[in-house]
């Protein structure tokens, strides 16, 4: 029988025991049957008679207040049961998730929502908050069970059912789990209620507890996504935003204290990684240490080696929260988590994990999924593998230091670096403008190779630095060779001056003058083109010139002259620049380096154009285009080089008063850059087209080209000086509109 007795059994039993009476003695004193007292204490009486309770209260010699509480407990309650824990007073964020849960609460049919996420991300806080906000919508009550799924001994199904039936006011509980399950299904087959199952281990712990009725909503929090639950909607929580982190700290610590040090509070939020548990621990430390400033706590947390130790207060600790999930993993998954920490990268694809853990990609992907299911990894936003939260990465590093020998960690780093640079060499071969690429590189073509390089930029930079630190100089020089044409295409992909600086150091260590001349040229190019520092580039090119001549390497000498010409032109010394280019042209004609000759021709045309020698510039460019024959130009790197020549030619044609021809040539250059996957120079071509359209008062064309150029420059994160040029042309366009108006 189902009754709502609101604690009468408990209140009566407590007073009887306090009076030192047995049930028989109390019944005899009150003049009622022993069965009456027994049924009252077992909760089997739905509507106890007031005279009976008066008699019992008299014989128990209760005070007026105690008598009132006993009589109140005996009154049938119309309020639905609510067994939720208290909501957090400083709950912040998650409004979109709460709105979605509210939508599901109002929908027809049984609904189950799984709230998943890493340890400490606030899953319990969200489901409890939702329960309190939605309680008025559920007349059958709001029930809560802490399943303790991550404990060594989670709550059993029988105990969970007992808690739920007791909360629903069920009378005497069946002894067996089967009996309780039958009773639970009977009770929940009617009415409209909300069930909150907190911290579930797996699907098997949840399924028997799902209400039988069609009007119940169930909220389940779990570190696992519980993919085996059918017809469930899943919400995966991320960390709090910077703004939400500051709101949490302000609510917990106080607006005055946080407001006194806003910059320190912002850093504190970042050091906690937006993880609600870490933020609450930090806030509690400030509350119990009123003499601490926010800055002093941020200073303590800045040390990565001790950050997790200091994110602990009382029974709250970030490390202990992670430990619980770590203990649930099998050893292969634990080992992979530790391996991820030895190479701190923004994302880990199965390819990289296979190299780190000495396994195959299929096994690596399976283990990454296991980590994700345990809330210890999450899909990377870029879609290339998985990532670790900053604090989880520190935890993984701690476990690696505690469980793995340093030699094992170094071996894992070496394997990953070797794998990355080997793949880099295969990818880079597709970007060589003139060298044929073998078919067994592991890439389907140049676009596939270029996409891989784009995805692995940060990992490649890590691999080069690790290799350099290990003194593997030959491998560093090989990487510089393999990535040279990638640097030409992606100016912002890597910090190229630092990269080629490592290559210079490697060549110097190997006492290889020829290699050092090449890398000094590359370093100077990177300083001038990617950092806009021609004055800093000049000494590197002069050193390359000296080394190339000493080593008898005409190619290095020719490239040094070409680059020095650019430095001289930037200073306004066009005569000196043309002289250097003429010498470089003679060298490359002798060595038969067709590509180098084309690059020199483009530079010559640029200098001639700056001097107003437009016909000479056009002749040089047209000759270079003829030399750059179709067979080479159609390959991905070659077609982009043809785009460079066409861009320069279009600008010369515009200067000569041939706007139609210029627009046609520049449109062809845009097509070349698109085919060659050269984003930055595509934007440059659109910028030139915008300038021509502006000159012709073709407003719509100018605006469209400027929009496209700005979009490209912003998306590629390169050539910010060109964004300034976009702004300058827009202002010219507005002035033109004003004059026309």
From TrEMBL:
GO terms for molecular function: ADP binding; DNA binding. It comes from the Bacteria. InterPro entries: AAA_16, Cro/C1-type_HTH, Lambda_DNA-bd_dom_sf, P-loop_NTPase, TPR-like_helical_dom_sf. Pfam families: AAA_16, HTH_31. Residues 12-67 form the HTH cro/C1-type domain. This is HTH cro/C1-type domain-containing protein. It comes from Actinoplanes siamensis. The lineage of its organism: Bacteria, Bacillati, Actinomycetota, Actinomycetes, Micromonosporales.
């Amino acid at each position: 029988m189902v009754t709502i007795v609101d604690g009468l059994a408990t209140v009566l039993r407590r007073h009887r025991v306090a009076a030192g009476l047995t049930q028989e003695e109390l019944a005899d004193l009150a003049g009622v049957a022993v069965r009456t007292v027994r049924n009252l204490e077992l909760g089997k009486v739905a509507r106890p008679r007031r005279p009976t309770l008066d008699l019992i209260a008299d014989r128990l010699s209760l005070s007026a207040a105690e008598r009132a509480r006993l009589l109140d407990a005996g009154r049938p309650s119309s309020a639905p049961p609510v067994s939720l824990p208290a909501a957090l007073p400083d709950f912040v964020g998650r409004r979109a998730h709460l709105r979605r849960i509210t939508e599901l609460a109002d929908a027809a049919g049984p609904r189950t929502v799984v709230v998943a996420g890493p340890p400490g991300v606030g899953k319990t806080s969200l489901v409890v908050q939702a329960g309190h906000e939605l309680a008025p919508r559920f007349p059958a009550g709001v029930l809560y069970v802490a399943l303790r799924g991550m404990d060594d001994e989670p709550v059993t199904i029988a105990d969970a059912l007992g808690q739920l039936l007791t909360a629903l006011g069920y009378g005497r509980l069946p002894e067996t789990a089967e009996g309780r399950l039958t009773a639970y299904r009977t009770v929940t087959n009617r009415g409209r209620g909300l069930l909150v199952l907190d911290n579930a281990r797996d699907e098997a712990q949840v399924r028997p507890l799902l209400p039988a009725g069609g009007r119940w909503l169930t909220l389940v929090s779990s570190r696992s996504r519980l993919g085996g639950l059918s017809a469930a909607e899943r919400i995966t929580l991320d960390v709090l935003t910077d703004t939400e982190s500051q709101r949490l700290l302000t609510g917990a610590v106080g607006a005055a204290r946080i407001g006194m040090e806003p910059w320190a509070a912002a850093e504190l939020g970042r050091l906690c990684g937006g993880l609600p548990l870490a933020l609450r621990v930090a806030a509690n430390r400030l509350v119990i240490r009123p003499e601490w400033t926010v800055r002093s706590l941020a200073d303590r947390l800045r040390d990565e080696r001790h950050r997790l130790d200091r994110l602990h207060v009382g029974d709250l600790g970030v490390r202990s929260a992670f430990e619980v999930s770590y203990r649930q993993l099998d050893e292969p998954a634990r080992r992979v988590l530790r391996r991820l920490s030895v190479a701190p990268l923004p994302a880990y694809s199965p390819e990289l994990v296979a190299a780190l853990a000495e396994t195959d990609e299929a096994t690596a992907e399976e283990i990454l999924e296991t980590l994700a299911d345990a809330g210890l990894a999450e899909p990377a936003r870029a879609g290339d593998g998985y990532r670790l939260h900053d604090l989880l990465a520190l935890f993984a590093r701690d476990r690696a230091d505690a469980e793995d020998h340093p030699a094992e960690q170094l071996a894992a780093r070496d394997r990953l670096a070797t794998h990355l640079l080997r793949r880099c060499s295969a990818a880079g071969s597709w970007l060589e403008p003139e060298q044929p690429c073998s078919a067994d590189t592991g890439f389907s073509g140049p676009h596939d190779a270029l996409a891989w390089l784009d995805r692995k930029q940060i990992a490649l930079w890590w691999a080069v630095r690790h290799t350099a630190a290990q003194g593997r100089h030959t491998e560093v020089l090989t990487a510089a060779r393999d990535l040279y044409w990638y640097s030409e295409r992606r100016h912002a992909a890597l910090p190229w001056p630092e990269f080629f600086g490592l290559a210079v150091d490697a060549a110097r260590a190997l006492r290889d003058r020829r290699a050092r001349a090449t890398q000094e040229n590359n370093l100077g190019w990177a300083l001038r083109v990617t950092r806009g520092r021609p004055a800093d580039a000049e000494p590197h090119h002069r050193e390359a010139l000296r080394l190339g001549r000493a080593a008898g390497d005409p190619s290095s000498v020719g490239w040094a002259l070409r680059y020095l010409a650019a430095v001289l032109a930037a200073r306004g010394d066009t005569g000196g620049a043309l002289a250097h280019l003429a010498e470089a042209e003679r060298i490359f004609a002798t060595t038969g380096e067709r590509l180098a000759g084309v690059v020199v021709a483009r530079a010559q045309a640029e200098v001639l154009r700056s001097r107003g020698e437009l016909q000479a510039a056009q002749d040089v460019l047209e000759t270079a285009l003829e030399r750059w024959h179709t067979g080479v130009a159609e390959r991905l790197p070659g077609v982009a080089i043809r785009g460079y020549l066409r861009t320069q030619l279009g600008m010369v044609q515009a200067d000569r008063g041939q706007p139609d021809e210029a627009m046609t040539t520049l449109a062809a250059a845009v097509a070349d850059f698109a085919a060659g996957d050269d984003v930055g120079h595509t934007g440059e071509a659109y910028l030139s087209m915008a300038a021509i359209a502006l000159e012709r008062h073709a407003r719509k064309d100018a605006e469209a080209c400027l929009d496209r150029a700005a979009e490209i420059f912003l998306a590629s994160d390169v050539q910010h000086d060109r964004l300034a040029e976009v702004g300058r042309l827009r202002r010219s366009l507005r002035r033109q509109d004003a004059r026309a108006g």
